[in-house]
Amino acid sequence: MKEVGFTWLQENFNIQGFRLTHESYIGTVDKMELSSRNTVVQTFKSKYDVSTDDPMSHLEFALKYDDLNLAFIKEVFACIGHQTIVDSIKVNPNRKYSRIIGYLYEFTGGKSIEINVTVTNYESILDASKYVTGDVKKISKWKVNDNLLGTKELCPVIRRTTELQELLNWNIEEAIGNLKQVYSSEVFRRASYYLYKKESKSSIEIEKEEPSQDRMDKFITLLEGAGQKSFEETLSEEELVRLQNAIVDPRYADNGFRNFQNYVGQTMRDYTQKVHYVCPPPQFVKSLMQGIVDLHEKNTSTEIIIKATMVSFGYVYVHPFEDGNGRIHRFLIHDILVRDGIVPNSTILPVSAQILAHMDEYDATLEVLSKLIGGKVKYHLNDSGEMTVTNATEIKALYQFPDLTNHAIFLAKSIQSTVDKDLPDELLFLQCYDELKGNIQGIVDMPDHKIDRMIVFLHQNKGKLANRKRKFYQELSDTEIEQMEQAYIQVFERKLRDM
Fold first, then answer.
1. Where does a domain end: 138, 155, 172?
2. Which site in 364, 469, 472, 491 is 20 to 30 Å from 73, CA atoms measured?
């Protein structure tokens, strides 16, 4: 088979580090396969062959058939060279792909091209059937519709894979609305209080820390205030500093975005550092954070889960503080959902609990970008573990133009599981709890705290009071205990059967 498109460009220019999500070849039959690396391998018949070693022809083929990767394209542009690009476009500046290539060249940082495009029809940069698109911005110079998700400062790409589209078709508002028809507002209120605590505890545990009650309470307070400020204010440096200061040890509170190079790593037994992720060099932090703010204006009609993906994962990759970035990353997920009215302000979705339950998948999702950067970044560490990146300009595009497809899939699955399982489980438990409490009180009129503890003990042991817990109820007879155990089974099994 013969390479074509991005596959040819990667091989011809020896571009290292990128894993193409779509590889194209010319062969004898049309076919499409999924490789062991989860890459789509597509073979085209000979009529699709560009029949040339002209990189611009392969670039045009790639824009038609391959998956868009802006960071990779920027590197391709650098290999082709400014004058070759200009000369190729000027042969026929009115052609669709001449205009798209010209715009993408300038968008990804190429020098401005003097051009006179005379056609009146505008061509969209992204095919909306293949990609999640942002609001259209008309570019008169190139006669193109910029429907990319972001700006030059930060522009994620999210492909509409079959899996992602199915997840986006799920209606989160309808799912929550159905729950509100089944459970009372009082049960919802109490469930939310518990889920705030669960989210706070899980978010801190993800950082592999033992949460103190004080830190959990502070994070709960932040969650309760989600969605109350404007998007621009929430993502402002001043507000993010306030959030960071509220959730970290005061000794590690920052007074602004970082002005130093940081990284995510671990100290090995020989005291060397194993670097997992190199954060953006400090000179890029403010422009990348501005890019996150600009996402709001570019995506007024984009799906909410997509917005939450871009903002939260965009933030965690920028890593603007020394500490607290992970918790703010997860706070921003909730903030977006509340802000857009998808989740009622009094309700919390414990997404962190889902992340904690699927840490391997979460880590693998983050590694999509961190491994790419790790393979291309050049740095050195001094004896104190301080890092200096020596090729900052070369790797800037990797942070600017991330592919967040897998991130959107992971977050959409986490939110769906939270709404379909975690939230109903807690609502059902509280409803059963209230009924069981009345039944137990009918058996023995005990103080409330005694009844509450009995229900917890029964729930912990699947309806049976454990022998080691019997000492807390020495005043009760074995018959009364058995009646309470039977009441538990009747209430909970009936409720589960009716669901």
1. 155
2. 364
Packing angle of the helix pair 392-400, 285-298 (nearest 10 deg): 20
Distance of CA 79 to the CA centre of its chain: 32
| pLDDT tens readout for residues 190-219 | 777 677 677 777 776 776 666 567 777 777
Question: Taking Cα atoms as reference points, which of 148, 190, 97, 127 lies closest to residue 310?
Answer: 148
The domain in which residue 346 lies consists of 163-422
Residue 429 lies in a domain: no
Number of structural domains (the chain) is 3
Question: Could you report the per-residue pLDDT of 9-50, keeping only the tens digit for each?
Answer: 999 999 999 999 999 999 988 999 988 788 999 999 988 999
- Single pTM value for the model: 0.89
What is the rounded distance in angstroms from the CA atom of residue 423 to the CA atom of residue 349? 7
Is there a single domain that holds both residue 143 and residue 169? no
CA distance 414 to 353: 9
Asked if residue 372 belongs to a domain, the reply is yes
The C-alpha atoms of residue 150 and residue 157 are separated, in whole angstroms, by 9
239 and 384 in one domain?
Answer: yes
Candidates 472, 451, 48, 16; CA nearest to 487 is 451
Q: Are residues 285 and 293 in contact, defined by beta-carbon separation less than 8 angstroms?
A: no
Distance of CA 490 to the CA centre of its chain: 42
